[in-house]
Specification:
Radius of gyration: 22 Å
Strand order of the largest sheet: 6-14-13-12-11-7-10
Structural class: alpha/beta
Largest sheet: 7 strands, mixed
C-alpha cells in the first residue's frame, strides 16, 4: 500500500478514475465544445492556463453570477476560485455591471483623462497612503512598469525577488533558488537571455540573506507580495517586515509591494492592515470587478523623482504604458467597484466566512489525524500538505502534491464545488454563503473517508 501525506494512493487513484468517468458522462456539451476547440484554440482553450483544471476535458462556462457558475451542461457550482481573485467580490457585481453598461455608450477609450480616473486615484491614495498613481491593464504590466521606474530613478540595474514568487508575466521575476543558486525558472518558455544577470533571489523570511543580497547597493527595488500566495501561502514571521523594510532602506533600495492577491486582507490591502510603508504598490485583478485594469502608486518622494527622470530623458517612448491603459471603461468600473463593492461591510462578511471554513478544515484534518495545515489571509484560506505552515517558497513547494490536488479538486468539482486549480486556495466573496462552506467541508470529509490510510 502506497501512502503519501496520510492518504492511501491506491484508494485515491481508484476513486479518481471513477470521478473521471462520472465527469465525462455528465458533461456532453462541454465535451462537444472541447472537440471543436481542439482545432482552433491552442491546447483547446483561449488561454493555455485554462487547461490546468483537474477535469479530463475542458469545462465550458455558460454563466457566472455572484458566487455561482453554471456550465454549458446546466451544472451549478459554488465558486471558491472566483477567477483566481479577478472576481473576488463576486461575478458581475451590480454596481460595476451598471457602470459598464452606462459608460460603454459614452466612449470606451480616448487616451485622454476623465473625472473617473481622478476619483479613483484620490480613493486609492486615501486607502493605501500613496499619493500618486498610474494605471495599467494588468498587474503584470503594472509590475513591469514599476520596475522600470525604479531602475530609472535609482540608476541601479538589479531587482530582488523571493524564491517561488509570481508577479505575472514579468521576465525579470522568473528566477528561483536551486541548490542555493539563482537559476532561471525551468518552465519559462522562449527565454533568450540570462535573467540572473539582473535579478537576485532569496528566501522569504530570511533577513540575513536579504541583507547580504542588498549589500553592494546595486538593487533598484525589492519586489514582493507582503505574504506569498502563488507557491502556496507563506506568511511573514512576526516582525519580519519591520526589519526587512529597515534593511531595504538602509541600502538605498525601493520596496515595491504587489498586492494583487493580498488585497484579500482588507480595503487597503496587507500594507494598510499591518502598517507597511512601501515606495510603490501594485493592484490588479479584482480592482475593476474582473474587467482588465490595474494601478500602481508612488510615494510623494518617488513620484517627484520619477517625473524628474522622465523630463530629463530624451524625447521618445519611455517603455512604460500601453495605449489602452487607463481607458474610460476601466476607470468607470474601478470607480464603481471601489465606491460600492470593495467596502468594509463586504470585507467583514468575507473574513467571517473564510474564518469559518479555515476552522472547519482544521477540525476536519484533526479528526482524520492528518498532518496538514490551514492558513488564512483575510478572505483567502488554503490547506497545505505540511504539518506546519511553510516559512518560505522552498518549504511550500516541497509540501505540494499535484496528484493529490487533482484528485481532491475533481471530486469537489463533481459535487458542485470549484476551487482554484493552482494548489489548494479557496477564496470568499460577499456572496459566498455559510452553507457553501459547509457543503465543501462535508464533501471533503467524504473524500477523506474513502482515501485516508
Amino acid at each position: 500500500m502506497a501512502i503519501r501525506h496520510g492518504i492511501d494512493l491506491d484508494k485515491a487513484r481508484a476513486l479518481h478514475a471513477r470521478e473521471t468517468e462520472d465527469f465525462l458522462a455528465r458533461h456532453s456539451r462541454s465535451l462537444e465544445l472541447a472537440v471543436r476547440a481542439g482545432g482552433h484554440l491552442l491546447f483547446g482553450v483561449p488561454l493555455h492556463w485554462m487547461d490546468d483544471w483537474p477535469t479530463p476535458r475542458s469545462l465550458f462556462l455558460a454563466v457566472a453570477r455572484n458566487a455561482r457558475l453554471t456550465d454549458v451542461d446546466g451544472h451549478v457550482y459554488a465558486d471558491f476560485c472566483l477567477g483566481d481573485t479577478g472576481a473576488m467580490f463576486g461575478h458581475s457585481p451590480a454596481p460595476v455591471a451598471e457602470a459598464i453598461a452606462r459608460e460603454s455608450a459614452r466612449g470606451l477609450t480616448a487616451m485622454l483623462p476623465g473625472e473617473d480616473a481622478l476619483w479613483v486615484a484620490e480613493e486609492l491614495s486615501r486607502r493605501f497612503g500613496l499619493p500618486v498613481w498610474q494605471f495599467a491593464l494588468s498587474a503584470s504590466d503594472a509590475n513591469r512598469f514599476a520596475i522600470r521606474w525604479a531602475r530609472a530613478v535609482t540608476g541601479r540595474d538589479r531587482i530582488l525577488v523571493f524564491n517561488g514568487c509570481y508577479h505575472g508575466t514579468v521576465d525579470d521575476v522568473f528566477v528561483d533558488l536551486a541548490g542555493g543558486q539563482a537559476t532561471p525558472r525551468s518552465s519559462l518558455l522562449g527565454q533568450v537571455y540570462d535573467l540572473t544577470e539582473h535579478t537576485r533571489v532569496v528566501e522569504f523570511n530570511d533577513l540575513a540573506a536579504l541583507e547580504d543580497a542588498l549589500g553592494d547597493c546595486r538593487v533598484a527595488c525589492v519586489l514582493a507580495e507582503p505574504a506569498m500566495t502563488n507557491i502556496g501561502m507563506v506568511l511573514p514571521d512576526p516582525g519580519y517586515w519591520e526589519q526587512a523594510q529597515a534593511i531595504i532602506r538602509r541600502h538605498g533600495s525601493l520596496l515595491l509591494l504587489d498586492e494583487t492577491h493580498t488585497i484579500s486582507c482588507g480595503p487597503g490591502g496587507y500594507a494598510a492592515a499591518h502598517g507597511l510603508r512601501p515606495d510603490m504598490l501594485v493592484l490588479g485583478k479584482p480592482l475593476a470587478g474582473g474587467l482588465p485594469a490595474a494601478a500602481y502608486g508612488f510615494s510623494a518622494e518617488l513620484a517627484a523623482r520619477a517625473q524628474q527622470a522622465k523630463r530629463a530623458a530624451p524625447p521618445g517612448h519611455s517603455g512604460i504604458g500601453t495605449t489602452l491603459s487607463a481607458n474610460r471603461l476601466a476607470c468607470a468600473a474601478m470607480r464603481a467597484n471601489l465606491a460600492e463593492v470593495m467596502t468594509e461591510d463586504n470585507y467583514r462578511i468575507m473574513f467571517e466566512r473564510a474564518g469559518q471554513l479555515a476552522q472547519g478544515l482544521r477540525e476536519l484534518f484533526a479528526r482524520f489525524a492528518l498532518p496538514w495545515c490551514v492558513t488564512q489571509l483575510g478572505a483567502r484560506c488554503e490547506f497545505q500538505f505540511t504539518a506546519r505552515p511553510p516559512r518560505n517558497g522552498s518549504e511550500a513547494e516541497a509540501g505540494q502534491d499535484e496528484e493529490l490536488e487533482r484528485c481532491i479538486h475533481l471530486y469537489l468539482l463533481n459535487r458542485g464545488l470549484l476551487i482554484t486549480p493552482f494548489h489548494n486556495m479557496l477564496l470568499f466573496s460577499p456572496h459566498t454563503s455559510e452553507a457553501d462552506g459547509q457543503r465543501l467541508l462535508e464533501a471533503f470529509s467524504a473524500w477523506l473517508e474513502g482515501t485516508v490510510a
